[in-house]
Task: structure prediction
Amino acid sequence: MVIYHSPAPASERAQSLLLVYIRRVVGEVTYEVCEHCGSGVITQVHVTTPLQDSGLGTRAVSHLRACYPDVAWHSCLTQRMTRDLAHRMRLPQGRARLSCPHLLRDAAENRGSRAQQAI
Result:
């Protein structure tokens, strides 16, 4: 399993982690970081159906925390499985807890705007 960083088309600030296994994308985590404010928000997690219970989401969130050790992470995840991941990884939920006004504005504008794509 390899994790690649990539720009995400959701907004100017959005980034993606692409989870690749044997030259095939099997998952994606979309996130935004404001290094000036030290805040980050995970806006989407998608793992292909056969691998959903394999721990890939947990591995990706752990990877983000390692890449941005000084960032306070939050979650805007709404689907049951991704909410469970946010709970396991102790990511505060909801826009009210976002401490960065830049991410708060962008999360409100882009939340749900990108249709979930089958990977």
About this structure: The helical segments are 56-67, 80-88, 101-110. DSSP finds three helices and five strands in the chain. The chain has a mean pLDDT of 77.
